[in-house]
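so i finally got all the pieces together for this one. its two components total, 547 residues if u count the protein bits. some of the lines might not be protein, just check the labels. i wanna see the whole assembly predicted at once instead of chain by chain like last time, that was a mess tbh
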Amino acid sequence: MELTQEEKDMLAGRYGEGTALAMKIQVGIGEAFDAGRMVAITRAHVALSAQDADLWFVEKLLNKGARCKVPPTVNPSIDLAYLNQHLFQIPKEGVDIVSATNEAYRRIGATLTFDCTPYLQQNIPAYGEIVAFSESSATPYVNSVLGARSNRESSQSALCAAVTGRVAEYGLLLDEQRRAEIRVDVSARIETDFDYQLLGWCYPLKHKGLEVPVFTGIRKRPTPEGFMNFGAQLNTSGAVSMYHIAGITPEAPSLDAALGGRPFKQRVEITESDLDHVRQQICGEPGKIDFAMFGCPHLSIRQVAEIAEVLEGKRLKIDFWVLTSSLTRELAGRMGYLQTIQRAGGHIVADTCIDVPPCWQPYYGRTGVTDSPKCAYYNEIRKIKFIIRPLKECVEAAIRGEVLR
Amino acid sequence: MRAEGLQNVTCRKIAEGKAEGEAIVSTDAICFYLVEPETGIVIEKHHALEGQSIAGKILVMPSGKGSSVVQADGLYKLMKHDKAPKGMIVEYPDPVLVSSAIVMEIPTVMRVGKEFYERVRTGSYITVDADNQLVSIRGTQP
C-alpha cells in the first residue's frame, strides 16, 4: 500500500504512539484487503459497547496519547441513574466499566450521542461521502439507503479511523465493489417494518457469501424504520454491509444498474415459505412473558408514537422498556408519548443498550417479548429468552402479560 | 488412521505470528459472542459447532458474523480465560474479523489454496505461519 508522507509519519510515531498504533491496525486491514492507498474520512461512528474489549482498547489508545481527528458519534451505553432508580441497584463492576468507558470516549474526543441510529439523527452522511461507520444497523444503512461509503468497520477500526482521519481504500469504497453480484427474487409479501426483520434474518441463511445482493420484487418503498430493521438483521444473521433494492435504493435505479450491467453470479429466491421457516425457527411459541423490551436498534419517534397509541388509557401487566436516543426521549415528552407510556407503567430510557451485560440482570433466565431478532440473539448468552412479534402485537401482549398467538 | 500431510500451502497474512495445533473446521460463520468464555464451547443454537470447543485450536471457518461489538468482545473474553483459538484460517474475511484478529494478536490467514480445504478435517494438526504466509497440515493428531 502506498502511504503519503503524513501517513508514513503517523505510522512512525511522529504524531504520538496512539496514532501510530491506530495507523498500524489500519495498514494491516488495508494490506489484508489489497488496498492501494488510504483516503480521508469526513465522519465516523464508533459502536461503543461498555464491554471489556471496548474499554481495554479505547484506554490503550488514550494512554498512548491518541485523540480523534474526526470526532465520532458513539453507540449507547447505560443511563445508570435511571436504571438505578427504576430497575435495580446496578452492581459496582457495571457502574465502574460504564463510567470508565464513557469517560475514556469523552477524553479521546468522541461526541457522546449514545445512540445506535446516527444515520437518523446527528451524524447523517450525504451521497458519496467516505465515512467509517461501525454498528451493524448503521453500516448497511449509510451504504444502501444513503449511498455514502463505509466498509464494515469494527468498533476498533472505526475508532482508529477517527484518530487518523483516514481509512484504507478497498471494498465498499470502490465503485466496482458496490455493484450487486447476487440477485434475490423476493416473492414473499414484504409490507410492514416487521417483514423486514424476517427478510433481513432470512437472506444470510440462504446465501452465505459476502457479495452485495440486489433484492427484486419489493415494490413499496420501505419506511426509514423498515430500512433500519432490514440492515440490522442482515448484518446480524450474516455480515451484509450493503444491499440494493431494485427501483428503490439510490444506486439501484434498476436491476441492471445495480448489477452494473454484468450478469449476476447467483440467483436466490425468498418465498413466503422461507419467511415462515424463519418465523418458526426464531419467533418462539406463544406464552407468558415477564417483560417487554424495544430499541435494538433505538426506536424512532414514529415507533414511540405507535407504542403510545396502543397504550393510551391502558395499564401494563409487565415491565416495559423502550430504548431510544436522548433527543427522541425529549421529543416524546414534548409530544405527550412519554407521559402516556409512563402512565401505563412503562419506561422510556435514553442512552442505553439492550446489550450492556450487568444492566439487565433482573431478567436473566426470564422470558421477554421484543420486535427485534437481533435483541433476542445477543441475549441468548444471558439465558434471556425472547418471543419475537411485530411491535404492536408486543405492546398488546405486554398489556395482558402473555403472547396469545 | 493418519491422514496425509500437506506442506507449505501459500496464503495471505491477516494478523502476524505463528501458531500450530489441532484444527476445528466449521461450515458455519462464527460469532465469538456465542462461544462460552469460560470453556470455549460454541453455544449458538443450530450452529455446526454447537457443543464443541474452539479453545486452543486452529479455527478454520468460512467467515465471521455478528455486530462489530460482539466479535471483538467475544474474542477478548475468550483470551482472558485462555480459551481463544490459537490461530485462524478464514475463507471470506470481513473487516470486523480482520481488525479483531489484529487487535487481539491472533495469527490469522486467508486465501489458502483449494488443496488445503480438500484435505483439512477437524482433528488435523496444522501449522499457521502468518509471517511467511504458509499453512501446513501435518496429518491427523495420533
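Chain B touches chain A at residues 12-15, 29, 33-34, 36, 43-46, 62-73, 75-77, 80, 92-96, 98-100, 102-103, 110 (CB under 8 Å).
Residues 6-140 of chain B form a domain with the Glucose Oxidase; domain 1 fold (CATH 3.50.30.10).
anyway lmk what u think
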